[in-house]
């Protein structure tokens, strides 16, 4: 069963919503930067999950680009 982020990315790709994917990517990148700058607690698990989500979003952006090379 696909994860929630995979379903969201698939929906954005299907709807050709590049802006939605870009906003999702920026949000995840801001979270990663914020967590990586913190100390006093082991944030490796949430950072790992966010990194996985960023990879899923990047794959979605690549799929969208492959489907619409002129518009991206």
From TrEMBL:
This is Uncharacterized protein. It comes from the Bacteria. It comes from Bradyrhizobium amphicarpaeae.
